[in-house]
Design goal:
Oligomer: heterodimer
Strand content of chain A: under 5%
CATH architecture of the largest domain in chain A: Up-down Bundle
Radius of gyration of chain B: 23 Å
Helix content of chain B: 40-55%
Number of strands of chain B: 8
Distance between the termini of chain A: 76 Å
CATH class of the largest domain in chain A: Mainly Alpha
Strand order of the largest sheet of chain A: 1-2
Shape of chain A: elongated
Strand order of the largest sheet of chain B: 2-1-3-4
Number of domains of chain A: 2
Strand content of chain B: under 5%
Helix content of chain A: 55-70%
């Protein structure tokens, strides 16, 4: 049901773009208005979401200490798993962001023949996720060729490297293949593992289908359906320079691709995709494990009702006196009991 | 209630692996069979602690005797916490449900219940968050994974947020560091605001508030029980130790969980501390007012944690000690590490801690002025300042259990191992995926160590117990050592069930056994009265 709904929404989005331009001729809407709207919603929404998180303080230092603390000199600490300062924290975050370090630890728990839980290394999610994100990022950078003139050298080089194997004409981009393979893997993993499927939401399937559809439409434009690349570049340069032009013979596939990308941008700040920004702000990863050394400040720390020593002594004065415990306020009975044996 | 036999329980655990309900999890109604839930809090402790709606109630009954405005209380409290805690807000927003955490939870492994997968445990709360805070949730409802807060949801929270021990194992594996413990802490806090809590937590918390310790030991009772330990030490070692209480001007105030004063096997660890302090001539005092290192406030609310924790610095200031030394306790050290200095500090009236024996500056504790006994002892051993006879632990084949809070909530892994290796000859590690930062909870942490919950606790401790079984079979391990009072309370039952023949001890019990005291008599038994290796021949 959720899978079907997610797929339907993506298909409706694609159909809407097709009908919009082919039947109603809404080139300006789909080629200019919506992309601008989507982009600014994305940029604004992203920033607002980050600000809304930032507005809530981090009252306590709750870093996950996944390695030895920095303590005695003769004991080796774990600078990345339990960083003691800024450098370690930066390293920890960057390794998470670029290499998915925590996911690299992943294990699969399954009962062994001895009827006990056994743990095996399970790196497929790490690998699939890493390939997916890096391919996506690479393709994003590669697309800068549509938004720059002249095209910067590094973008051209990245493109050349991507076509390294020179399969087909035009040359096949490896990252296209990687993206489609990894997004397919992420989808199949979600439906093939019953527990994951059980807790998955529409919001988990939708971005996968959307990104797959973006990939398919992009690839189709390059390899299967003749598309006017120069026309597209005129449009994209027009968008980026705020002098939008409309080319209506680039083919509707381009408009579908553009609309799906716009949909992704629009959806992003309101969805789980915000993990992209959130990861930098996670208090279990971005704080140093130095709270015994350095006092962490809680901006809303408020006084609380306690049971003071004075109240305690009032409650138990007789018992304390009887046991020979020293008293702050011996009360009426000063019989010399208050003296205690032991070291002085 | 009789427990199922080991074979039955194992079959039950195996049978429930990879079995999922046909219905969507939101449709599955929560039930309360005996052994699967903790008793509700009683009126008395609620009144002592000024908790809302104190009453006697039973979770298994339909009517929870809630106040009419309970739902608004939770909704309002939720919003307040989103404004106060970035962690909560972020963890409500950024989970992608990748499922890396799913099979990392000891309760999921032991029960097979999908709501014990950390990701779904988080969804129990996120679903309510979405309904009130996200566009998708408001418009699409269930399709967007959103739902109203209802009494059924509250009952589900009660069951599953008390089937999480806040151990943080899942957070180690999460690519964004989402910490289910943090979610559970807030869920429990919200439930408490609506007058819903468990007696095993509120009871000890109210005791701790009034008498200074969870067990509710009054001043003379503490003295009496320590006095009897002093006598035991005398008869085993021939040495008289002289602990003092509430003594002003001592250099160090020693804080330890109250179970060490009173409960087997914590008392043997206490004997170890007392022998060690005598051996090095430490100028220390104990306190009857601050007679609890543990803090069940951590399992109630941040506010309650602060209400209980504040006694420690207050007492240190009153007694004019220089710094604090802390005993073996798990969540006590999570509180010291994550919260104490922030909540009740700065303790500027104390001095930066320096070992009076070795001169080592414990600069890593310059803020809290609170040193862990394992750090302290490791430093003593490193400087050859104590005399040890490792052979006195030769009758023990030891494995070490990393307590959740000490490992993932503080980051101490090596100090206790260093100490064990210097006081005993036979030490064996459990499998790699079950120790250090990947350690498994005893199944009874975060206040769940109550008798009516034994069946669930045994299932929760299954993963840990099976790892013990590995070293029990391979290395004939007969002692599990842990530096946590809840461990020392929970493991005897857990190991007796799954691993008969394996006993539980604290670290300083082993230290106490190995310590060669000046003028001691020849020892034939260890601190718990068991024969030493070779002494029976």
């Amino acid at each position: 049901m959720k899978i079907f709904s997610a797929l339907t929404v993506v298909l409706i989005l694609a159909a809407a773009a097709y009908v919009g331009v082919e039947i109603f001729g809404l080139y300006a809407i789909f080629g200019v208005v919506i992309p601008y709207f989507a982009f600014f919603t994305f940029a604004g929404g992203f920033v607002l979401k980050i600000l809304s998180w930032a507005k809530s303080p981090t009252p306590f230092n709750i870093t996950t200490t996944a390695g030895q603390q920095k303590s005695l000199k003769f004991i080796k600490n774990a600078p990345l798993e339990n960083p003691s300062g800024v450098v370690g924290v930066a390293g920890r975050i960057l390794l998470e962001v670029f290499f998915f370090r925590s996911l690299f630890r992943n294990t699969k728990t399954a009962m062994t023949k001895d009827n006990r839980p056994g743990y095996q290394s399970e790196k497929s999610l790490w690998l699939g996720g890493l390939v997916f994100h890096w391919s996506f990022f690479y393709i994003f950078i590669r697309h800068l060729r549509f938004f720059t003139y002249p095209v910067p050298g590094f973008v051209s080089s990245m493109e050349t490297i991507d076509r390294l194997f020179q399969i087909g004409l035009p040359g096949l981009y490896l990252t296209d293949i990687f993206l489609l393979l990894s997004v397919t893997f992420l989808f199949f993993r979600r439906v093939a593992i019953p527990q994951i499927k059980y807790m998955s939401l529409l919001a988990d399937y939708f971005p996968l289908f959307l990104i797959a559809a973006i990939g398919f439409s992009g690839i189709a434009m390059r390899y299967f359906v003749r598309t006017d690349v120069m026309g597209i570049k005129n449009m994209t340069m027009g968008l980026i320079s705020f002098k939008p032009v409309i080319i209506n013979d680039t083919g509707s596939l381009f408009y579908i691709h553009l609309f799906l990308v716009s949909s992704l941008f629009l959806y992003f700040p309101f969805s789980k995709l915000m993990h992209a920004g959130g990861i930098f702000m996670s208090p279990t990863r971005n704080l140093a494990g130095n709270s015994r050394k350095k006092r962490h400040i809680n901006p809303w720390n408020y006084p609380v009702k306690t049971h003071s020593y004075e109240e305690y002594e009032n409650d138990f004065r007789d018992a304390m006196r009887g046991a020979g415990l020293p008293l702050e306020n011996p009360g009426s009975d000063v019989s010399g009991h208050g003296k205690q044996e032991g070291k002085e | 209630m009789a427990l199922p036999k080991v074979g039955e329980m194992t079959d039950d655990i195996l049978k429930k692996q990879n079995v999922l309900p046909k219905k969507s999890w939101m449709e599955v109604k929560t039930t309360f069979e005996p052994g699967t839930y903790c008793y509700g809090e009683k009126a008395a402790p609620g009144e002592i602690l000024d908790l809302p709606n104190p009453r006697d109630w039973d979770p298994a009954q339909d009517d929870w005797k809630l106040l009419p405005n309970w739902k608004e209380t939770i909704q309002k409290g939720f919003q307040t916490r989103l404004e106060r805690f970035r962690s909560l807000k972020l963890f409500m927003d950024i989970c992608v449900r990748c499922g890396a955490c799913a099979d990392k939870c000891h309760f999921y492994i032991g029960t097979g219940d999908p709501k014990n997968m950390p990701v779904l445990r988080g969804e129990l709360m996120r679903s309510v968050y979405r309904k009130e805070n996200t566009v998708g949730g408001k418009l699409l409802g269930k399709l967007a994974g959103a739902r109203e807060m209802t009494e059924d949801v509250l009952k589900e929270w009660y069951k599953y947020y008390y089937q999480c021990t806040e151990c943080r194992r899942c957070s180690v594996f999460c690519p964004y560091g989402i910490d289910t413990a943090e979610i559970t802490i807030h869920a429990r806090e919200l439930m408490h605001e609506a007058g819903v809590g468990i007696n095993q937590i509120t009871g000890p918390a109210s005791n701790s508030f009034m008498t200074g310790n969870h067990l509710g030991l009054k001043p003379h009772a503490i003295l009496n029980s320590v006095e009897s330990l002093v006598e035991d030490i005398k008869s085993i070692t021939g040495i008289t130790v002289n602990p003092t209480f509430n003594r002003k001007g001592a250099e160090i105030l020693f804080i330890t969980p109250s179970a060490d004063f009173f409960a087997d096997p914590g008392i043997f660890t206490m004997m170890g501390y007392l022998l060690l302090f005598e051996h090095i001539g430490l100028d220390y005092t104990l306190s009857t007012y601050a007679s609890e290192g543990g803090n069940f406030g951590l399992f109630t609310s941040h506010e309650m944690m602060k209400r209980l924790n504040s006694k420690i610095y207050t007492e240190a200031e009153r007694l004019k000690v220089k710094w604090l030394l802390g005993g073996e306790c798990g969540h006590m050290w999570r509180v010291v590490h994550q919260y104490m200095n922030t909540m009740t500090g700065p303790a500027n009236f104390l001095e930066k801690p320096v070992s009076p024996v070795t001169g080592t500056k414990f600069s890593f504790a310059d803020g809290t002025k609170f040193v862990h006994i394992a750090e302290f002892t490791a430093d003593l051993i490193r400087h050859n300042t104590i005399k040890l006879d490792k052979a006195r632990n030769d009758h023990r084949k030891i494995t070490f259990h990393d307590s959740c809070n000490i490992s993932r909530g503080m980051g101490m892994f090596e100090e206790p191992r260093y100490v064990i290796n210097n006081v005993a000859n036979h030490f064996f590690e459990m499998p790699e995926d079950t120790i250090r930062e990947k350690t498994f909870c005893c199944g009874s942490g975060s206040g769940l160590n109550t008798n009516e919950y034994m069946e669930t606790r045994l299932k929760g401790g299954f993963a840990r117990a099976m790892a013990v079984k590995e070293v029990q079979e391979k290395n004939n391990v007969n002692l599990l050592t842990a530096i946590c009072a809840i461990d020392r309370a929970a493991f005897p039952a857990l190991l007796n069930y799954w691993n008969p023949g394996v006993e539980t001890s604290g670290l300083h019990e082993l230290v106490g056994n190995a310590l060669v005291m000046n003028g001691e008599k020849a020892r034939t038994v260890d601190l718990r009265g068991d024969d030493l290796a070779g002494s029976e021949t």
